Structure formats: structure tokens, C-alpha cells
Amino acid sequence: MKNEKTAVVLVSGGLDSATILAMAKERGYTPAAISFDYGQRHHFELAAAERVCQAAGVKVRTTVKIDLRAFGGSALTSGLDVPKDRSEGEMTSAIPITYVPARNTVFLSLALAWAEVLGASDLFIGVNAVDYSGYPDCRPEYISAFERLANLGTKSGVEGLAKWQVHAPLVSMSKGEIIRRGIELGVDYSLTHSCYDPSPEGLSCGHCDSCLLRLKGFADAGVADPIRYAG
Amino acid sequence: MKNEKTAVVLVSGGLDSATILAMAKERGYTPAAISFDYGQRHHFELAAAERVCQAAGVKVRTTVKIDLRAFGGSALTSGLDVPKDRSEGEMTSAIPITYVPARNTVFLSLALAWAEVLGASDLFIGVNAVDYSGYPDCRPEYISAFERLANLGTKSGVEGLAKWQVHAPLVSMSKGEIIRRGIELGVDYSLTHSCYDPSPEGLSCGHCDSCLLRLKGFADAGVADPIRYAG
Q: Is the CB of A149 less than 8 angstroms away from the CB of B150?
């Protein structure tokens, strides 16, 4: 099913983006990977993105530097504390403090700009609306709205040269299903990083929402999580 | 008609953005101004944005640095030549080489992120679909699509705290009408900069699409353009 088309894949270094990179390749796309150095609390994520891309044989890659800290407004880009040991109910009942305002809109816009220059018309993003943190910009209706915007707001969209598609293949999968799918595709999850609040050495805390969702996902998949935790 | 609401206004330093800044104030908004240092060919634009904001008494202001040159694909962000002395037909018959891929999508996304942090729900952008350069992301249907995206992709949109509005008050005005309106509102167009290809001293070329549209606008408005041209 090779189609030789380039797809721009948003790669954060987490397990979702490692999985969609493998899925994009399975669907025959040549992945061009984009990552964002947006002033996140730590750089372990970007190191993981680099490892994941290398393992997947990605040849075209860019990291966009954009300082979202200048805006503030999130525990992930400011000095606010990351919440720990929350129940599933707490995690999904309201949009958490780790929400970064309009982050996926900013990231998808930059991916769109790069894709248009590359002549690509496919974007892959690892958003997930099942085992997720309640972020508004992870829902299918949001993804459709962005696709529509892309077709109206780009040269290629208007000229009909590209019919933009935003692929969000994980959107209705559970974390456990994502992990099982990734393992079938040969994803090495030991290369990924999910924790919002790692130790100075880069060990995952095991208690933030992201670690808890990850650990539950591996438990549901019946597989051991290959990364190391701090305690 | 004071409503004490903050609106984020995209200010490039051109005549359109100087006009919408005045219009936002006239409608009772307190403007927060956002500009973009995106790797444009010259910095006269950003200096003009600073002058325009000072003259308008803007108190909240940010300039986001984002290197769109890394992507390339436009005469405005690369070494490609800016076209000169084109007829109106040439200017509007196809999307020109000065189009920066997905630029307004990137800019609006960042404005949205900042506005969400500020607690604002109004954005002002000076796009214009009449005397314009044929850019796809300057059309009313594009602006509506972005508004929809904002309401789906932000915390405040989802929680119903903010009903996002993207104001594009110039969208169906001619350049001449824009200038007449701005003069009524006291805009000092000598502070603005429009040229894509200024001299090293910052004098406008008078021959690029942007200068030609500007000069035609002043001619239509029956007013002399107060800026200096190179020849």
C-alpha cells in the first residue's frame, strides 16, 4: 500500500506520537517529523522525540522553537505545580492546569505551514479523546474543524492541489489499545517519555496525570512499561 | 460604548493593522497588541508596529519570535525576488510568491493562545479581501472557520466562558475606504510601513505589490501618502 506521499507527523516523544509515526509508515506515508521546543518544563521530551524519530528512520525532521512561556497560563510552561495522584474522575471532570492554551492549534498551524512548503497534504497528530486529560483540542470535532481551516487557508487548499487531511488515528482508542497496536507495529516504548514532572535525571514521577494514564494503559495492555520510574 | 473588554489585535505595522487598532478602540475594547518576528526580510515592519502601538497608547504588548524562515517557501522569508510593477490583473490572478504558507493561521493561533491566557475572547485582524494580494487566508470564510476552531479548541470556548469572535472589520473595504476611515479615527499613517522590499534606510520601493496597493489606496482616498519612497 505504498503511496510515496509525504505526511507531516507531530512527534512529541510520548507514546502516542511514537505510535502514530509507526501507523503513518504502515499506511505507506514517508513521515516528515515536526517537534516543538515550546518552553516546556524539561527537555527529556525533545530527547525522546529525537530517539523515536531515529528508531523510525525519519529522514526529514524539524524542531520549531516557540516560546509559549511568554504567554504563561499552564503548569507545563510556568512554575505552577503539576497535580499528582488524581483519580480518573478528577482527571476527566475538568480541564486541568496542565492544559496549554491553544497548544494543538499552534502546533497544527506550524505543521500545516511546513507541510505546505514540503508539498504534503497529510498531517498526523496523536490526539486521543478516550484515556486523555480532558483537553478540548483533542476531540474529533476539533480535528475536523482544523482540516476545514486548512482547506480554506492555504494556497494548495484553495487551488485544489491538496485536499488536506488531518489524521488522528488514536482519537477513539484507549491507551491500552494504542500500546497493543504499537507493539504489533514494532514500536519501542522504552524510547518514549510521558511524565510531566520527571526527576533531574529524567526518571518519570509515576504520579502525574500523564504517568498515571500511561501506567494504566500498559496494565490494560497486559505489558510491562519498559521505562524507569523514580520511586 | 465602553465595554472594558480586552481584545487581542494583530499589529504588523502596516496601514491595515494601524486602522484596526483604532477601530478596536472605537468599539470600546482595550487593545492588547501582538506582533510577530517571523524572519521577515527586514525589521522596519516591527519598528513601525512599535510606533503604531505607542501612538495608540497600547499598554499590553508582546512580540512573538517564530522563525518561519526555517520552512522557506515565500519571497518574504527567503532570498527569492519580490515581484515589481505588476498590473492589478497580475496581482490578483494567482496567489503570489510573497504568500507565506499558512501565515495567518500561525499568527491567529498564537494570538488565540495569548488571548486565552489574558482572559480575552476577541481578536482583531486586518485582513482584506478587496484590494489585497490574493492570499487565501484573507477571506471571510477563512475567518469564520478560524472562529469555529477557536470555540472548539480552547478551554474557554468549551466551557462557554468565552464565545470567541474574530473581528476582521476591513475584510470587505477597499484600500481607499480603509484609509478614509483611519483618517477619521485619527490614525497617523506616517508611522506605518507597507513595503516588501525597502531600501537599507527603510524607504519604500514604490513598486512591489504592497506599495502599489498602498499608493492606489491613497490616490482613491484623495489623500497624499505621508511616507517617503525611494525614487
A: no
